[in-house]
């Protein structure tokens, strides 16, 4: 089955064609990063307008690169939440037009499910599996006992880890988006500030990063007021060490408690090289997998893969009343 995937939950317009949930035939991504750099973050209204401008071109490029026709598509899978509601609606409505015009079944896909199934593009997911989802809007641990069987073990109680990264980047006056730059600078810095590890010893699997973020911001402010030298590389390294310690230790404990066969990391922060290195050192007795770098950030190939397995399990398509839901729950 050829699945046409559509992703527009934030500031990437992406359409892909994936065969049988594994083989990527095309994956076109139109990014808006350069547009939003001027504002230091994504502006929802601008993101929506840019999706409108580029969505038809991205559809046509994805079909052309796959060497197919729309008549060859067996399923249209589209992100219908969570995300920016204006952005979601552009992708959902474009997907509905294609599904209606060509008589193709349509299925809505949760954005986080897409990130999780990005791993399946590299190798089949084995169950039971533990997924650590780390992105700009999400930080959570999900247990999977089968395809599209998600049990949330814990999640952030405030800020997502990617959001915290970007905020620290802004405080340190780093280019947008700040997360990748913090990761890069941390490689040459030292953990000289020894920031706290929030909730690392708590018995549950929840996370909290707002206190750590405030601690870093306040220290930076106080040092600036005292005209003390600020070593950005050390700030980045100290922050990253604190964050990755919490993520890795909680993931390790959950993986052992639930006796999983593999651990997968998903979401934009899965591209973080510091997290990849520490996870490999922390969990040595259970396979730990990350998606390829190109599938860490938002893309439609992951949505097509997730849509394939969701449809295979349920056999139920959505109707043309499918709508975007900015607060859509994973289950």
Helix fraction by DSSP (H/I, runs of at least 4): 40-55%
Number of helices: 10
CATH superfamily of the largest domain: ATPase, nucleotide binding domain
- What is the CATH C level class of the largest domain, in words? Alpha Beta
End-to-end separation: 25 Å
Largest sheet: 5 strands, mixed
Number of domains: 2
Q: Could you give the count of β-strands?
A: 10
Low-pLDDT runs of 5+ residues are: none
Strand order of the largest sheet: 3-2-1-4-5
Identify the overall geometry: globular
CATH topology of the largest domain: Nucleotidyltransferase, domain 5
Structural class, by secondary structure, is alpha/beta
Secondary-structure element sequence?
Answer: EEEHHEHEHEEEHHHHEHEH
Please name the CATH architecture of the largest domain. 2-Layer Sandwich
Strand-residue fraction?
A: 15-25%
Mean pLDDT: 97
Description:
The structure is a single chain. This protein is α/β, with parallel strands linked by helices and 331 residues long. It folds into two domains: 2-117 and 296-314, 2-Layer Sandwich (Nucleotidyltransferase, domain 5); 124-290, ATPase, nucleotide binding domain (Nucleotidyltransferase, domain 5, 2-Layer Sandwich). 42% of the residues lie in helices and 19% in strands. The protein contains ten helices and ten strands. It has helices at residues 33-36, 44-66, 85-102, 111-117, 161-171, 178-186, 210-225, 232-257, 273-282, 300-314, and strands spanning 2-7, 12-19, 23-31, 75-81, 106-110, 129-134, 139-146, 149-155, 262-266, 288-289. It has a five-stranded mixed beta sheet, sandwiched between helices. Strands 8-7-6-9-10 form a five-stranded mixed beta sheet, sandwiched between helices. A hairpin with a 2-residue loop joins strand 7 and strand 8. The longest helix is centred in the C-terminal third of the chain and has 26 residues, at 232-257. The mean pLDDT is 97.
């Amino acid at each position: 089955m050829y699945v046409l995937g559509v992703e527009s939950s934030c500031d990437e317009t992406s359409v892909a064609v994936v065969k049988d949930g594994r083989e990527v035939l095309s994956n076109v991504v139109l990014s808006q990063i350069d547009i939003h750099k001027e504002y230091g973050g994504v502006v929802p209204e601008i993101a929506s307008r840019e999706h409108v401008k580029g969505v038809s071109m991205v559809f046509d490029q994805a079909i052309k690169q796959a060497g197919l026709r729309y008549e060859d598509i067996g399923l249209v899978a589209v992100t219908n939440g969570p995300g920016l509601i204006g952005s979601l609606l552009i992708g959902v409505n474009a997907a509905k037009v294609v599904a209606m015009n060509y008589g193709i079944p349509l299925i809505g896909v949760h954005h986080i499910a897409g990130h999780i199934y990005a791993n399946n593009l590299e190798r089949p997911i084995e169950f039971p599996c533990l997924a650590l989802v780390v992105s700009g809007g999400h930080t959570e641990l999900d247990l999977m006992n089968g395809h599209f069987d998600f049990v949330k073990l814990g999640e952030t109680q405030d800020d997502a880890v990617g959001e915290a990264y970007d905020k620290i980047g802004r405080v340190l006056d780093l280019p947008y988006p700040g997360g990748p730059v913090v990761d890069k600078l941390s490689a040459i810095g030292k953990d000289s500030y020894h920031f706290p590890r929030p909730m690392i010893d708590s018995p549950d699997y929840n996370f909290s990063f707002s206190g750590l973020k405030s601690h870093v911001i306040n220290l930076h402010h106080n040092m600036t007021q005292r005209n003390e030298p600020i070593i950005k590389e050390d700030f980045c390294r100290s922050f990253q060490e604190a964050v990755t310690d919490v993520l890795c230790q909680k993931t390790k404990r959950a993986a052992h408690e639930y006796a999983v066969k593999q651990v997968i990391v998903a979401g934009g922060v899965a591209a973080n090289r510091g997290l990849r290195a520490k996870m490999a050192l922390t969990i040595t007795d259970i396979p730990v997998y990350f998606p390829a770098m190109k599938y860490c950030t938002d893309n439609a190939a992951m949505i097509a893969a997730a849509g394939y397995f969701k449809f295979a399990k349920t056999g139920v398509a959505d109707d043309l009343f499918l709508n975007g839901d900015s607060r859509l729950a994973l289950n």
